[in-house]
Design brief:
17 helices; globular; mainly alpha; about 450 residues
Length: about 450
C-alpha cells in the first residue's frame, strides 16, 4: 500500500486540529471506559458494592503510576516524532518511535515485578483498611499481570496520532473498551468472580488492543513502522524522549500522589465511606476532563509540526482555538455537575449514604472547574514546542506544591475535616491554571517575536 505523507501545513489550522482531536477525544473517552465500566459494575456487587468500590479506589495510585511511565515515553516520543516529520526527517522519527517502544516494554516488565512484590504494603499506605484490602488485592494482582499491555497501548497510541492516523488510534482503544464492556458482566456476575472478574476482563481487553496496535505499526499502512533496527536504545535519543515526556510523567505521577494523600487523609478523618466518595468524585472528574484533555492533546501534533516547519502564524491561531474551545467545554461541564450531581454519583453507586454524602462534596470539588482548561491548554502548548522544563514545572506546581500540601493541611484548619480534602482541588485549579497559561503566553509571544 502506498504511504500517505502527513502535512499539517496544508489546509486550515482548525480543520487539522479537529481531524486529530475528534478521534483523540473519542479514544480518550473510550479508553476511560476500561476503568469506568469496572466501577459501575463493581459498585453494584450486592451488599458489598460500596466496600468493593472503595477497594478499587485504593488501586488508583498504582494504576496511575503505570500510566505515568507510559506517558514518560509516549507523550515524550510523540511530539518529537511530529517535530522530525515537520523537518522531513522520517528516519529519525522512526528511530524515536522504536526506542520509545523498547523503553515501554522494559519498564512494563520491571513495574509488574515490583507491583506484585510490594502490593500489600502499598495498598495499606494508600489508605486500605482490613475491610477494604481484600477487594483491592483481588483486583490489583490480576491487573498488574497486564502492565506491559497497558504500557504499549497508552504509550504507542500517540505515535499513530503523530503520523495523522487519528482513526486508527481511536480503533485501538475502541476494540479493547468494547471487549471490556462485554466481558465485565460475564466475569463479575455470570461467573461470580466479583472484583477478580473485573480485573481479568480489563487485562484481556488490553491484550486485544495491544494486538491491534502492534499489527498496525508493523504493517504497510503505517508511514513509520516498528523495525528491528530501530528498537535498540540509543542513550541520547532516549534522554530526549524522557526529557520531553517527563512533564507528562510528573502530571500522571502527581495524580497518583494526590490520590494517596486524599485516601490516607480521608481514612484518618472520615473512614471508608469518604474514601468511597473520593473514588466516585475522581471518576466523575476523569469523565469530564477526558474530552478537553483529548482535544488539547490532539492539537499537539499539529502545533509540533508547524513549529518544526517554522510557521509561527499557524501556532498562534492554534493556541487561540484550543483555549476558547477548552474553556467553553469546561464551563458547560461545570454546569452539568452543579445542576445534576446525583445523576453522576448514581452511575457508580446506589448506596443512599454514599450518594447523600457525595453531593455537597462534589459541588465543592468542581468549583471553578473551567480553570482546569487553562492548565491543559498551557501544558499541551509547552509539550508541542518541546519546552520540557516549563511543562514539568507547572505539572509539579499544581499537584505537588499546591494540592498535596493543602490536602494534608486544610482538614486540620478551622474544623474543616474531610471538606478540606475536597477544597484543595479548586484552589489548585485557579492558582495553577492562571500561572501555567500566563507563563505560556509570555514565553510563546517572546519566541514568536524573535522568529
Amino acid at each position: 500500500m502506498k504511504e500517505q505523507k502527513t502535512d499539517f501545513l496544508q489546509g486550515s489550522v482548525y480543520r487539522n486540529i479537529w481531524s486529530l482531536a475528534l478521534p483523540m477525544m473519542a479514544a480518550q473517552l473510550i479508553n476511560l471506559l476500561y476503568n469506568v465500566v469496572d466501577r459501575m459494575y463493581i459498585g453494584r456487587i450486592g451488599d458489598a458494592g460500596a466496600m468493593a468500590l472503595t477497594g478499587l479506589g485504593l488501586c488508583f495510585p498504582i494504576i496511575t503510576i503505570v500510566s505515568a511511565f507510559a506517558s514518560l515515553f509516549g507523550s515524550g516520543g510523540g511530539p518529537l516524532c511530529s517535530i522530525e516529520l515537520g523537518k522531513g526527517n522520517e528516519e529519525e522519527a522512526e528511530r524515536i518511535m522504536g526506542n520509545a517502544f523498547t523503553m515501554l516494554l522494559g519498564t512494563g516488565i520491571v513495574l509488574t515485578g515490583l507491583g506484585i512484590a510490594m502490593h500489600r504494603t502499598l495498598l495499606y499506605w494508600f489508605g486500605a483498611s482490613d475491610a477494604t484490602y481484600p477487594f483491592a488485592r483481588d483486583y490489583i494482582l490480576i491487573y498488574l499481570c497486564g502492565t506491559v499491555l497497558v504500557m504499549i497501548n497508552l504509550g504507542m497510541n500517540g505515535f499513530l496520532n503523530s503520523q495523522g492516523f487519528g482513526r486508527a488510534a481511536m480503533m485501538t482503544v475502541t476494540l479493547g473498551a468494547a471487549a471490556n464492556i462485554v466481558l465485565d458482566p460475564v466475569f463479575i456476575f455470570a461467573l461470580g468472580m466479583g472484583v477478580k472478574g473485573a480485573a481479568l476482563a480489563t487485562v484481556l481487553s488490553q491484550m486485544l488492543s495491544c494486538l491491534w496496535i502492534m499489527r498496525f505499526l508493523t504493517s504497510p499502512k503505517a508511514m513509520l513502522r516498528l523495525k528491528r533496527q530501530t528498537l535498540r536504545p540509543q542513550g541520547r535519543r532516549v534522554l530526549r524522549i524522557a526529557a520531553l515526556g517527563f512533564s507528562g510523567f510528573v502530571m500522571q505521577a502527581n495524580n497518583g500522589l494526590v490520590q494517596i494523600a486524599c485516601n490516607a487523609t480521608l481514612q484518618a478523618f472520615g473512614g471508608d465511606l469518604y474514601v468511597g466518595v473520593m473514588t466516585v468524585v475522581n471518576t466523575v472528574r476523569e469523565i469530564l476532563t477526558m474530552p478537553v484533555l483529548g482535544f488539547t492533546n490532539g492539537a499537539t501534533p499539529v502545533i509540533s509540526f508547524d513549529y518544526g516547519a517554522g510557521r509561527m502564524d499557524r501556532i498562534k491561531r492554534s493556541i487561540r482555538f484550543i483555549t476558547a474551545a477548552a474553556v467553553i467545554y469546561s464551563l458547560a461541564a461545570w454546569a452539568l455537575v452543579f445542576f445534576f450531581p446525583r445523576l453522576f454519583i448514581r452511575m457508580f453507586s446506589g448506596d443512599g449514604a454514599l450518594v447523600e454524602t457525595a453531593v455537597p462534596l462534589l459541588h465543592l470539588y468542581f468549583f471553578g472547574f473551567f480553570m482546569m482548561a487553562l492548565q491543559f491548554a498551557g501544558q499541551s502548548t509547552f509539550l508541542a514546542l518541546g519546552k520540557s522544563k516549563q511543562a514539568t514545572f507547572f505539572s509539579l506546581l499544581r499537584k505537588t506544591f499546591i494540592v498535596v500540601p493543602l490536602t494534608l493541611l486544610l482538614p486540620r484548619v478551622g474544623g474543616l475535616g474531610v471538606r478540606g480534602v475536597f477544597m484543595a482541588e479548586p484552589v489548585s485549579n485557579f492558582v495553577g491554571g492562571l500561572a501555567c497559561y500566563g507563563t505560556m503566553l509570555w514565553i510563546v509571544r517572546r519566541e514568536l517575536k524573535s522568529r
